[in-house]
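About this split. The held-out portion is used to measure sequence recovery: a designer receives only the structure tokens and must propose an amino acid at every position. Recovery is the fraction of positions where the proposal matches the reference. Here is one held-out target exactly as it appears in the evaluation file.
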């Protein structure tokens, strides 16, 4: 079961990376004649939301709280502890 969740999350991530690359190569994300976003932008957001739900629902991010309420804390099984995540450095002027 966990393998299938990781497999699904990996495939979705690769797909999102491909779509992101495509979108970044475009001159604009807006259809100027209709004054709206191209449909691929909205579909990309839908896929990103699905990936977030898949990862949050996995065993790595189980949380404790009342009535299934998310406390925002990773479980002890999470491979990355928040203190280990390096913050990006801002370029000094």
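Reference sequence for scoring:
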């Amino acid at each position: 079961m966990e393998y299938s969740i990781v497999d699904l999350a990996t495939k979705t991530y690769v797909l999102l990376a491909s779509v992101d690359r495509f979108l970044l190569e475009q001159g604009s994300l807006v259809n100027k004649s209709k004054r709206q976003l191209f449909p691929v932008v909205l579909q990309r957001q839908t896929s990103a939301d699905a990936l977030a739900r898949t990862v949050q629902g996995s065993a790595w991010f189980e949380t404790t709280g009342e009535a299934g309420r998310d406390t925002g804390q990773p479980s002890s099984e999470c491979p990355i502890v928040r203190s280990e995540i390096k913050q990006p450095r801002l370029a000094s002027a």
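Annotator remark: The beta strands are 30-31, 36-37.
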